[in-house]
Amino acid sequence: MTLEVSLEKQLGDFAFASEFSVQSRRVGVFGPSGSGKSTLMHMLAGLLKPDRGFIRLDGETLFDGSSKVNRSSEKRRVGVVFQHAHLFPHMGVWRNLLYGYKRTPKQQRRVDPQSLVEVLNLGPLLDRGTGTLSGGERQRVALGRTVLSCPRLILMDEPLNGLDEGLKYQIIPYLKKVFAEFEIPFMFISHSLNEMRLMTDQVLEFADGRLCAQTSAHRLALHRMETSQTGYMNLLELRDPRPQNGLFVYRWGNQDFILTAGGEAPVGMFELSSREITLFKKHPEATSARNLLHCKVKKVFDVGNRVGVELDCNGQHLVSQVVHDAVRDLGLQVGGEIIAVIKASAFRRLY
After folding, report:
1. What is the DSSP letter of 124?
2. Where are the domains of the chain?
3. Is there a contact between 215 and 205 (Cβ–Cβ < 8 Å)?
4. Taking the domain 233-349, which CATH number applies?
5. Closest CA to 85 of 27, 133, 32, 152
6. Does residue 148 contact residue 116 with C-beta atoms inside 8 Å?
7. 110 in helix, strand or coil?
8. Do residues 270 and 261 touch, judged by C-beta distance below 8 A?
9. Which CATH class is domain 3-215?
10. How far, in Å, CA of 60 to CA of 276, rounded?
11. What does 20-47 look like in DSSP terms, one character per residue?
12. Quick one: the chain helix, strand, coil %, rounded to 5?
């Protein structure tokens, strides 16, 4: 997807004025409340007319103030998933799902309803009324309804904001699976840094109606380390657990991690704070920590009164943080070798 935007809009005392161009299928729009994220989304969807500027999607002009082009929201083929599901209460789940599909010309239908039902695991819900659904189930149905309208682009406006943390991380794998399976470009709008990291590649960061950065989700997280109470959160996909002396050994790339886990060992995405990674100059003689990784230093950078250290651990990457004196004591420099030590209890499962 190629999206070119140059827009201005005055709404009372709030002024939106931003210009950008992105080429990606996974775009994030990040910023605090009142930064202009939803204003941008409404203009892209055709729900709010800009004062001036243009919107071009894959070379097609959707809006141009100077030439008075303003395609209706129905003709833009831009789908929207709102924070609240907005399902039709007089229709059951199956009729809600097919609402947009039946109104899409046959030549534009490229998503099979049954395939989507499988991907979103909606089969058990098809005969139910919308009033019986949980928050997470409603969001899955709303996403399915939007996908089945076969849009060229889907805008998601804080779709996980109303869900508790546990439910939020249950929904994210469904979102990722849908967009990977059906190859539909999307813009994911959120003020959550973790959601940006898990869902997007390129990120547009907004503040006070202005675009203040266009970056990657990884670089955005590094930039915000200084103000984060938890440091940089490393996101690790861990697989193939096997028990070992009351702990569990997981595969991370082509190496192992040892974790604590109660009962069955879950697989999936885990987070690990940069503050939980201790660095040693040499292999320690003995330590209670179960994970010792031989790494090379990729980058050393200032993070306020701390120093961030990017590590290459046999092809996998971690970010640690240390105090300034430790840089000297450890002889940290790009290309140098270091031992990263991590407790088995330092990992937290997201999904």
Report:
1. G
2. 3-215, 233-349
3. yes
4. 2.40.50.100
5. 133
6. yes
7. coil
8. no
9. alpha beta
10. 48
11. EEEE-SEEEEE--TTSSHHHHHHHHHTS
12. 30, 40, 35
User: Are the beta carbons of 28 and 196 closer than 8 angstroms?
Assistant: yes
In angstroms, rounded to a whole number, what is the distance separating the alpha carbons of residues 194 and 198? 6
Q: What span, in angstroms and rounded, lies between the C-alpha atoms of 217 and 220? A: 5
The encoded tokens of residue 343 equal 């407790």
**CA 189, 191, 197, 200: dihedral to nearest 10 degrees?**
10
The per-residue pLDDT for range 103-160, each reduced to its tens digit, is: 999 999 999 999 999 999 999 999 999 999 999 999 999 999 999 999 999 999 999 9
Residue type, 342: I
pLDDT 10s digits, 90-106: 999 999 999 999 999 99
Q: What angle do helix axes 93-102 and 135-147 make, rounded to 10 degrees?
A: 20
Between CA 109 and CA 96 the distance in angstroms is 17
The conformational region for residue 194 under phi > 0 = left, psi -120 to 50 = alpha, else beta, is alpha
